[in-house]
Write a structure and sequence with these properties.
The chain is an alpha/beta fold. It has one domain: Rossmann fold (3-Layer(aba) Sandwich), CATH 3.40.50. The chain is 44% helix and 15% strand. The chain contains 8 helices and 8 strands, in the order E-H-E-H-E-H-E-H-H-E-H-H-E-H-E-E. Strands 3-2-1-4-5-6-7-8 form an 8-stranded mixed β-sheet, with helices on both faces. A hairpin with a 2-residue loop joins strand 7 and strand 8. It starts with a strand and ends with a strand.
Length: 242
């Protein structure tokens, strides 16, 4: 049985990623810091005929992550797929688009969830992933974290000046590269994925892409064959410039 854990999976891209993985016969674990919402999401997938369980998980809290790893160890004994999907973009909702408006507290809050969360998740779950025949880690990133796109005035991402979110995704990509080097020669692969601008609570209804479209690249990287890439940054069209 293949086990996949998706953080922030009670709604949006996370839930759709769980659904698409479950449709492949994978047992999905719905990671959510809100128990009621997480349980409801798992029950929804169960009602659709899929194997799904809820896991209490707050990626901004180290103790919560450690407890989740222990729970997965006790229940399943391994982990095959880890999708670090949970993320926040508070600047967009609060209309903070200049560096002068950014408070240190907000910057730290963004990094705690978007960077330190995935770091702690990978660190704590690596022992379980090493027990998998083909461990896969996917970090849900964004082209807003691409230094190439952010530096190019002709890029559609250039005008989006949310320094906290953008730089946190750049940092997440750097984390992907560092961990990939350490996993070379093992049965584990890690990659960053850009789902695009998707219609979610974060992306708003103005986004051009559906959650089904957004989850596609995440699922693809979560189920890579043994000769698949390690340490890359992709959307469904291929590699993205760092």
């Amino acid at each position: 049985m293949t086990i996949a854990l998706i953080t922030g999976a009670n709604k949006g891209i996370g839930l759709e990623t769980a659904r698409q993985l479950a449709a492949k016969g994978i047992h999905v674990l719905i990671g959510s810091r809100d128990a009621a919402n997480g349980q409801a999401a798992a029950q929804k997938l169960q009602a659709e005929g899929y194997k799904a369980d809820f896991i209490a998980l707050d990626v901004s809290n180290e103790a919560s992550i450690k407890q989740a790893a222990q729970t997965v160890n006790d229940r399943y004994g391994k982990l095959d797929i880890l999708v670090n999907n949970a993320g926040i973009h508070p600047e967009f909702g609060q209309g903070i688009f200049s560096f002068e408006q950014m408070s240190l507290d907000l910057m730290m809050q963004i990094y705690q969830t978007n960077v330190f969360g995935p770091f702690m998740m990978i660190r704590e779950f690596l022992p379980l992933l090493r027990r998998s025949e083909a461990g896969r880690i996917v970090n849900t990133s964004s082209s807003l974290g691409s230094l190439t796109e952010q530096s190019n005035p002709e890029s559609p991402y250039y005008p989006v000046n949310t320094a906290g979110y953008n730089s946190s995704k750049t940092a997440l990509n750097a984390l992907t590269v560092q961990i990939a080097k350490q996993l070379t020669g093992t049965n584990i692969k890690i990659n960053s994925a850009c789902p695009g601008w998707v219609q979610t609570d974060m992306g708003t209804a103005a986004a051009p892409r559906t959650v089904q479209e957004g989850a596609t690249i995440i699922v693809q990287l979560a189920t890579l064959p043994n000769d698949g890439p390690n340490g890359g940054f992709f959307d469904e069209n291929g590699a993205i410039n760092w």
